[in-house]
Amino acid sequence: MKHGFTKVAAAIPGVRVADCNYNITQIQALMLKASEAGAQLVAFPELSVTAYTCMDLFSGKLLLDQAEKALAELVHSTRDLPVLAVVGIPLRTENRLINAAVVFQQGKILGVVPKTYLPNYKEFQEQRWFSSASELKLDTIRIGNDSYPMGGNLLFETGNLTVGIELCEDLWVPVPPSSVLAMLGANVIVNLSASNELIGKNSYLRNLICQQSARCISGYVYASAGFGESTTDLVFAGNALIAENGSLLAASKRFEQDEQLIISEIDIDNLEHDRQVNTGFSKGLDRMLFAEAVRIPFDATSVEGTLTRTIDPHPFVPEGAALTERCEEIFDIQVSGLAKRVLHTHTQKVVVGISGGLDSTLALLVCVKTFDVLGLSRKNILGITMPGFGTTDRTYQNALDLMDSLGITSREVSIKAACLQHFEDIGHDASVHDITYENSQARERTQLLMDIANKENGLVIGTGDLSELALGWATYNGDHMSMYGVNGSIPKTLVRSLVEWVANYRVDEQSKRTLLDIADTPISPELIPADENGNIKQKTEDLVGPYELHDFFLYHFLRFGATPSKIFYLAENAFGTKYSRAVLKKWLHTFFRRFFMQQFKRSCLPDGPKVGSVSLSPRGDWRMPSDASSAHWLHEIELIPEN
């Protein structure tokens, strides 16, 4: 797919033990289904041609002959299908029997991967019938009249997709073959398995697969034996799983009596990005099992279609219990960072500008918790409300109520007279509500906070968040500056969730009511006078666009280095019909234009704690020339059709 996705499938066919003809008929039907769905790769369970539970029947010539004959028929009958298929089968070579994965496409066998680690448990005694890949001397295998590449070091390549294969138990050892294959270039790992069900085993298996995909920075396609396998002693529930870099994308239902096919898309571009920036990824290759890879090309069809995987519209904000856990962890990180800075500077006081908005509220809550942890009096937190020309009654009253209920020291310093004097000094008409009018107020407030901090021997705590820094929505040397910024790596969409979390779990009932009203207040810098009814006239999201969109753009641009066209495509999938293509294009253009233009503000940010994988600190997370050209990015956006 043109945006870097590879569509993959994991299939669980119904089987009959030792009935190869029946089994390949089921495999063929699922291959057709996967191909029609646009899958470029489909994986089947271990020994799926014969069924896994044949036991001592594997020692007989007839079953092995029938398996090879059935494989030949399967490869021939699917010659018109473009999908790359991986099936499990017992094969003979070097007077041994191997548990093998056969890879084929469009009527041609491309290679054979033998299983390396054979279990010998009470319930799994594969060593009774099979030999390990490590015992083989040859690197080819004869099937019928032809020879094919064989080995655990085979990689199957097309474009930017490289597939490596391991079988069942290979995953469970300390250094799985997939780790080596990933360092050799495999970005999608296929595992053909036959793992029986036990209490608690499924959860362990899912965690193992997700963790391995994370360690390998890869996709992982897992297909395990299901209904039809012998239940003489064991039950096979039919597990199909697709994971990507630690996240589970798709999973089958267990204990289904019908065949199953799960499909999802693995983002190869994102995997390549993470491997590129993780400079330690390929270290230690010389100590691993395989020094070299055998690379086998295959053809891939270009697929255009709808994503089946879910694209989260709010990547910074999880749902349910995960949100509660994330908010608690972030809040503790903020508090720990500020506590260290307070102790290091030997200060007893902090100064925070309180506007009644989300960002200053969160900063105040962090200060309160920090002082509680350090055993310092909340009265040493100086909350300064600085009403100006655009301050509304709602935000002003919320600021006063919150400072009162939290028990901090509050002061009020109006900036109106000082700003009017400043306008007169610089020759600015106060009736002209331009950028000079707005920024003068922001800088006056910062000057007050800094001077009060000097007077009180305290620290000015910054309130600006990650989304504002990305857009440059801050006044240079105004609210852009502080002595320690506790919100600098928290996006706006998450700031609201944090305030609501603190309201519900960390404060008294009076503070809770105020916090929930603050969370429900439109976001505004309040630098322009209110309307005739006293309501906020200057709404930030009307001017620069919805923060949920900008946070989405920011996440995919910084986290994965995604192109504008891909971000647009993902946004369409994530938000559905909520925004038209024209609206998405408009705000995407705004995001990239402002992001490049406002880098100079991010080049001199104050210290502050990093809380997530996306941050804009110039000291380690984002180093960008302030005069870099945005031409390529904006041009790509201009080429996106609105219809």
From TrEMBL:
Keyword Metal-binding assigned: no
Annotated residues for binding of L-glutamine: Y121, S195, K201
Keyword entries, A-Z: ATP-binding, Ligase, NAD, Nucleotide-binding
Positions of deamido-NAD(+) binding: N439, E468, W473, A474, T475, Y476, K601
Keyword ATP-binding assigned: yes
Gene3D superfamilies reported for this sequence: Carbon-nitrogen hydrolase (3.60.110.10), Glutamine-dependent NAD+ synthetase, C-terminal domain (1.10.10.1140), HUPs (3.40.50.620)
Protein role: Catalyzes the ATP-dependent amidation of deamido-NAD to form NAD. Uses L-glutamine as a nitrogen source.
Top-level taxon of origin: Bacteria
Active site: E46 (proton acceptor), K115 (for glutaminase activity), C168 (nucleophile)
HAMAP family linked: NadE_glutamine_dep (MF_02090)
Binding-site list for ATP: G353, I354, S355, G356, G357, L358, D359, S360, T463
Record's catalysed reaction(s): deamido-NAD(+) + L-glutamine + ATP + H2O = L-glutamate + AMP + diphosphate + NAD(+) + H(+)
EC number: 6.3.5.1
Family under the similarity heading: In the C-terminal section; belongs to the NAD synthetase family. Belongs to the NAD synthetase family.
GO cellular component: cytoplasm
Residues in CN hydrolase domain copies: 6-268
GO BP term, example: NAD+ biosynthetic process
Organism: Macellibacteroides fermentans
The protein's name in its UniProt record: Glutamine-dependent NAD(+) synthetase
Pathway per the UniProt entry: Cofactor biosynthesis; NAD(+) biosynthesis; NAD(+) from deamido-NAD(+) (L-Gln route): step 1/1
Pfam families registered for this protein in UniProt: CN_hydrolase, NAD_synthase
Gene Ontology MF terms in the entry: ATP binding; glutaminase activity; NAD+ synthase (glutamine-hydrolyzing) activity; NAD+ synthase activity
